[in-house]
From TrEMBL:
This is DUF2061 domain-containing protein. It comes from Mesorhizobium abyssinicae. Residues 9-58 form the DUF2061 domain.
Amino acid sequence: MDTHSRSFAKALSWRATGTIDTMIISLVVTGSVKLAAAIGATEVVTKSLLYYLHERAWLKIPYGRKTAFLAPSAADRPD
């Protein structure tokens, strides 16, 4: 299992990759560096917020979850 700091670093690197991709596509489509940068800056905020909301929504959905099996403790076992 990854540590929280590793997961956070991976999330940041993925978001940076996605934003650079969006900015390059925006530059190709619009031909404007200024507009491409504005689109990239907007995208990083909106997609981060949407991702957070998406994750929080999925916490309420039981689909695909496995219930953890806990072995009985010594106190729960009959003598």
